[in-house]
Structures
1.
Amino acid sequence: MDEASRRSVLAAGAAAVAAVAGCSTYGEPKNAPAPSAPADAVLAKTGDIPVGGGVIIGASQVVITQPTAGTFKAFTSVCTHEQCQVATVEGGTINCTCHGSKFDINDGSVVKDPAPQPLAAKQITVTGDSIQLA
């Protein structure tokens, strides 16, 4: 490859790197907030939420749990440690796999660090078999 061709290839590569860097989201949260579901939108059906467990509704950033039969709770799905999305609900806890934080399905309280605060509660209504944000 001659010197002119080598310079052209290097210049094209540098331009591509600059273009990609221009698309970065430096300084923004790891998981930008998703648009909230309208209050009248059905988030889940009661039959979809296991007793002693829960379901993560990622698009609405909500976790719905059913600690005991017929009792439904809702919390933000954004971990209070580094704002990662929680990943699972099992064993009586809402689990963030980014750094290992765990939250109680009854009240969102921290069960395992490093999360510094509980998950914020969300208000829901249960009408028939539909669960909606209040």
2.
Amino acid sequence: MFAKPIPGRTTAAAEGEVVVLLIGMRINHFRGVHHWLPVLLAMVRTLRELGRDRGRGLLGHTLLTGSPRTYYVVQYWESKEKLYAYASAPDMFHRRAWAIMNRRAKKSRRHVGLWHETYVVPEGGYESVYADMPAHGLARAVGVLPLQARGRRAADRLAHRSSAS
């Protein structure tokens, strides 16, 4: 939580494709706390479950709020296949939570909105720069490199290709 800044400019050590999942909720009616609080707690429980089993493919995440009504998680995954496998695994919490939400949909959806967006970004379609920051976002998920390792300009970093490509 109180990570030390890394002096200078750095970039994420990502190689190959990057899978980013944005998943969140919006509180539509604050008084319906018994509808939206379980959703918020399910988000946290899902992250805890994934944190205990790194083999599932979650590389890292950041919890964010867009407003007092909107909460979401930016997740970085090893692959879309691992994301799909986790989302549909019958023995994992996500599947149970989603089934519960679908059963309660008629009542709950008026009180809480749900959303997600998934981006599969090929190598050459992302770049990053962090100045005097602790590892953050993608860099926290995959590691940090000195900026010069990928190029001083965004165009150079976008042109980077790993040996795996």
3.
Amino acid sequence: MGELEDAVMTRVWKWNRPVTVREVLEDLQQERSIAYTTVMTVLDNLHQKGWVRREAEGRAYRYEAVSTRAAYAAALMNEAWSQSDNPAAALVAFFGMMSEEQRVALRDAVRIVQGPESPEPAPASAPDTARTNPGSAPEGRGR
């Protein structure tokens, strides 16, 4: 997705409601000079790509985001990663660019995707057994 498409989608997500080309245009014009037809074309392209849905309202359309910004970011990352000729190297390079805060978020995300891990609990008597009888195996083992 190009810079202009991203700027348009940012507005659609920000308002979190169906928007018109005119509304997006007026907001974008606060930052840059842009034509109505350009915004209309970008929203039409986003509709064709499946990022927005639209409903006719008179002679115009109202556009609404199909998915969240997080899903969009994930799709961009997946697209870039899948185009790499060496996905592992691409991930290593990507992780190397991350801040510590982003790495923490990544670890949290991996934990969520993998589900709760159930670490094997150590036998409660293992330390005592080792001290009192160093040659014996923990309960349930070696039998």
4.
Amino acid sequence: MSETPDTLREPTFQQAMEITAQWLALWENGELSDEVLGDRVAELVASRDGARGFFVVSLAGDGPLMDRLPEPLLLQLRLAGAGVVDLTARNLAMSTAMVLHHQRAGDGVQQGASERVQARCTDLLRGLEPQAVKQRLETLLAATAGEGEDVAFLDRWGYDTDQRAAIAAAIDAVAEG
């Protein structure tokens, strides 16, 4: 896929996943510096689909990026603002709920994968702008108790009482770190 300026400005979700995979491979091979990766990701996460594609690949993938988040990348994600905070909070909720789902199904491999995404989201949230994270997680926490604008988000995914309690505990864990 060619990377035109327009592709980077408003990539589709699919394009963003492909671009992210290419960049992470270059970064892992030492062909892309932390600073350049940070700058490129900043462009990508400026759009909602770009950010979604980046997080699908980086949070759920096997690569080491989100386990040893380079400071230049963390800085760019922090500067990206509320959109990145929102997606990371939602990914925390979804991965936490899926840990319980896979545990119930006896699927240890998928449970472990969801636990890894959950841990990566927790670590990332601790590195993002504290006030924005606090406000976003308070809204999500209220929804686990059946209140506020995120109730529809939790309802859409069909999370049960135990999953909502696990999400609340995961939110508390972010603050404890």
